[in-house]
Amino acid sequence: MRVTAAIAAIVIAASGCDAFAPSGSVLSRSATTALSEKNAPRHDVRSSGAAAEMDPEEAKIQAAFAEHQQNAPKLGWATDIRSLVQYNHGFAVMSTNSKVNPGYPGGSVVGFAPDELGRPLFVFSGMSTHTQDILADPRCSVTIASKEFKGAADGRVNLMGEVALLKNEEKEAAKACYLAKHPGAFWVEFGDFNWFRMDKIVDIRFVGGFARAGSVTPEEFSSAEPDPVMAFGNHVAQHMNEDHQDSTIAMIANAIPGLEVDEAIITSVDSLGMYVKVSRTPRASDQPQQFKMRLPFPRKADDRKDLKNIIVEMTQAAAATTAKAE
Q1: Exposure string over 126-162, b if 16+ CB within 10 A, otherwise e
Q2: Which residues in 129-272 belong to E strands, given as ranges?
Q3: Which of 133, 146, 162, 187 could form a disulfide with 138 if both were Cys (CB 3.0 to 4.6 A apart)?
Q4: Cβ contact 86:232 at 8 Å
Q5: Residue 73, SS3?
Q6: How far apart are CA 254 and CA 206, in angstroms?
C-alpha cells in the first residue's frame, strides 16, 4: 500500500482517525483519555525527493476528511474490545510457556467462550501440550481476532494473564456458557477434559486497524458491556457489500462532499456507525489509495429494525443530494 506524506500527516494528526496509515501506532494506557497532538505517536513517513505540490481541491477534500473522522462518533475503547471478544467466532491463539522447551513460547489454536465479565473460558484435554504448559506455568496470552478478520485493517486483541482450573461448583455454569458459543462441543462431557478460565487479566493490547491501536485496563474491560448491534452487524455488512455497495459509496460522498471512492467494503457495524475500507485515486494523481474510514450514523441504533431504518434514511439522503446536484 502506498501512502503519501501529505495524506499521512493530515490523518495521523486527526486524533482517532483510522485511515491512510499502516498499523502500529499505540495510544496511551488509558483508552478513555485522548492524547494531545504533541504527545501522540506518529508513523515515520519518508518521501524520496521534494513533495509534489498538492492539487488545491484535493487538499480541501483531505482536510474535510480529517475533520469528519476526528468528529465521527465511535464506541468507547473498552466497549469496542469487549464486543470483539464477545462476538468472535469462538477460537483464538493461546501462547503458553513451553514445559518441554523452557524459555520458548508455544502457540495453539483453542476454543473459548467469554463469561459475563469477558474472561475466556476453556475446556482442554489433559493430553494437550497447552494444558501441560499452563498447569506448570499459568501465565499465558490469548490473541482473539474479530469475527470478520481478513487482514491488517481488521481488529484483534491480546489478553495477557493467568489461567486457573475452575472449582467443581463453577463447572456447570461454564459448560452452559461454552455450549452457547460451541453447540457441537460434545467433548465437554469427556472425563479427561478440564475446565479453565483466565481469572487474572494483567494486560490488554488492542489493534483496531490501520493507525488505531492501544489498550484499556482490565477493570475497564470487565465493566464494559458488549455493543448489542455488533451481535448482528456482520450480517448487515455482508448484505450491504454484496447487494448495495453503490449505496455505501453514495453515503460516503454525501457525508464528505468531494470524496469520491471506487470501492467501499463495510468491515464492521456497531450502534454508532460503520467502519468502511475504501479505495480511491486522488485528484491529479495516478497512485490509488486504500484506507479505512468511519461512517457514523445520524443517531444511535437500538436494534436490528432501527439499524435498517437508519441505513435506509442515509441512503435516501444521499440519493436526494445527488439528484439535487444534477
Answers
A1: eeeebbbbbbeebebbbebbbbbbeeebbbbbbbbbe
A2: 139-145, 156-165, 193-209, 212-214, 263-269
A3: 162
A4: no
A5: coil
A6: 31
Q: Which amino acid is at 267?
A: T
Q: C-alpha grid cell for residue 247? A: 449505496
Under 8 Å between Cβ of 240 and 262: no
Provide the 3-class DSSP secondary structure of residue 94.
strand
What is the DSSP code (8-state) at residue 51? P
What pTM was computed for the model?
A: 0.79
**In the numeric block, which cell numbers belong to residue 145?**
481476532
Cell of 218: 482490565
In this prediction, residues 234-240 reach a mean pLDDT of 95
Give tens-digit pLDDT for 63-116: 999 999 999 999 989 999 999 999 999 999 999 999 999 999 999 999 999 999
Number of H helices, E strands in the chain: 9, 11
Number of Cβ within a 10 Å radius of residue 211: 25
Task: Find, among 223, 206, 75, the residue nearest to 142 by Cα.
Answer: 206
How far from 309 is each of 227, 269, 301, 303, CA to CA, in Å?
18, 14, 9, 10
Distance between CA atoms of residues 33 and 164, nearest Å: 32
Whose cell is 436526494? That residue is: 320
Q: How many residues does the chain have?
A: 326
